[in-house]
Design a protein that fits this description.
alpha+beta; 60s Ribosomal Protein L30, Chain: A; 14% strand; Bact_OuterMem_StrucFunc
């Protein structure tokens, strides 16, 4: 085989590998079709809808500032409650870019979750890890899992029973693509979702 033929075969092989190795990001399901999404079309308000803004009494004061109970809670936009869960009552824990360690400034939010669980022994907590849009889907699922695991480890070390904690990773499923730095900072989080069942 001539030198030219060998070089041509090598270039052809490299080109084939390059073309077959480049794949697009997988198509993501609609968040309403995920396990934590709404069940069916008539399921009521979605995550983005505020029950409080619709005039529905949730039994919770959306303006709690923690002064009476020592708990850090929020309400309003992003708040959702149904028979199975409460999302948006406890503040999310935020992370630095590509990090899964709990920052000192974010520990107060996990301490508020401990106080909530102590006051509500019938409830459990889902720690849902999220990432910004940068990185592959697979990497971000792993990073979201590590973030949720860090929050779980913090809570278990503080005395919360493992049976009251669950973790999940959404990776960059709900991240805003090509987002600003401030939006990406909001996407790097662990949501603290209260499970009623």
């Amino acid at each position: 085989m001539s030198v030219f033929a060998k070089k041509f075969l090598l270039v052809l092989t490299v080109a084939t590998l390059a073309l077959t190795g480049c794949t697009k990001k997988p198509v993501r399901p609609d968040p309403s079709a995920t396990a934590m999404g709404m069940q069916g079309a008539g399921g009521g308000a979605g995550y983005g809808d505020s029950l409080l803004n619709q005039g529905i009494d949730t039994g919770l004061d959306p303006l709690l500032d923690g002064s009476a109970s020592g708990l850090e809670m929020r309400g309003g936009d992003g708040y959702y409650e149904d028979d199975q869960m409460i999302k948006g009552l406890l503040e999310p824990v935020y992370f630095d870019f590509d990090q899964s360690g709990i920052k000192t400034s974010e520990r107060i939010k996990l301490e508020a979750a401990i106080d909530y669980l102590n006051a509500n022994p019938q409830h459990r907590l889902l720690l849902e890890g999220h990432c910004d849009w940068k990185g592959t889907a697979e990497y971000n699922l792993g990073l979201g899992d590590r973030r949720a695991g860090s929050a779980r480890q913090f809570l278990e070390t503080a005395g919360v029973a493992a049976s009251r904690l669950e973790t999940a990773s959404k990776g960059d499923l709900e991240a805003v693509e090509n987002a600003s730095d401030s939006q990406m900072a909001q996407d790097r989080r662990v949501e603290l979702i209260i499970l009623k069942l």
